[in-house]
Amino acid sequence: MNSEIQSYNDKQSLNDKEICDQLATIIDGELTEAESKIWHSHPVWFLDGNPIVGYSKQKLGIRLMFWSGADFEEENLNVRGEKFKDASVFYNKISDIKIKDLNSWLKKSREIQWDYKNIVKRKGQLEKLK
Questions:
Q1: What is the DSSP letter of 72?
Q2: Given this model, what pLDDT does residue 123 score?
Q3: Which of these, 19, 49, 105, 130, has the minimum number of CB atoms within 10 Å of its CB?
């Protein structure tokens, strides 16, 4: 696991740290080609410079967000972004993580991508990559 991400996880409460560690382990295991780092203060994984998946501590729990998740057509990714193509789910205990679902979403994140890397250059307009 990326040392910056481990440091982020270590700063969470014990319950949230367990969730974060599990998420990072599963993401690292599936997206082996991804670059991971702390971006805008939370862990994010990138494919070819494009943000794919990340998580953050929020009031409702640990939010796992897929930048292009709205197009995954997954009912459990039910927190949809209003402006972009993101979709999220919140976890409050480690047993909330459904590994089979998470692995499926990670596979889809590789296949379905919107170009967030160039969103500023395109003045907020998204273009589909895959």
A1: G
A2: 65
A3: 49
